[in-house]
Design goal:
S-adenosylmethionine decarboxylase, alpha+beta, about 160 residues, 7-stranded antiparallel β-sheet, globular, single chain
Length: about 160
């Protein structure tokens, strides 16, 4: 089936990093998201940052089984971006703290620019990426997606 233009992309990075201090700060996470969006030419419309552990304490609730952490999300003019960090999970690991980043857009973008910013700011030690590209077929006007799913690991 011939493929028409890309109509969307969803890119996810799950990994370990040495900059656990940044992962514990929801304002720093929001700043990181703004930087990532800037390098791929996306414009934030609204943002939200949450210190999970502080909110659980405020509500007098038990911590999640994952030791809490911080999250930040941006609503973009083209979709969304978010990052979640667990700076205190399994501190015995030599490869750092766990993070999960995802960005989706109704237009195409260059994931390598995102990889560069995440590596520089988080000091990524190990990660796995999933890149889902959505395209429309040329032989039919129905809204039908053709999916290309790629997973790869980049050693640092």
């Amino acid at each position: 089936m011939p493929i028409r233009d890309t109509v969307g992309r969803d890119y996810t990075v799950i990994g370990w990093c040495y900059n656990s201090k940044l992962l514990a700060d929801e304002k720093a996470l929001a700043c990181l998201l703004r930087e990532v969006c800037s390098v791929v030419g996306m414009r934030p419309l609204a943002e939200m940052g949450v210190d999970v552990e502080a909110h659980l304490d405020k509500l007098n609730l038990q911590k999640f089984e994952d030791e809490g952490g911080s999250s930040a999300s941006l609503i973009l003019s083209t979709s969304h971006a978010s990052i979640h960090g667990w700076p205190w999970r399994d501190q015995s690991r030599s490869d750092g703290a766990l993070f999960w980043f995802t960005i989706g857009s109704c237009r195409d973008f260059d994931p390598s620019a995102i990889d560069h910013v995440l590596h520089e700011r988080l000091s990524v030690t190990r990660s796995r990426r999933t890149d889902l590209v959505l395209n429309l077929p040329t032989d039919d006007d129905r809204l039908f997606t053709y999916e290309i799913d790629r997973q790869y690991e980049l050693p640092y």
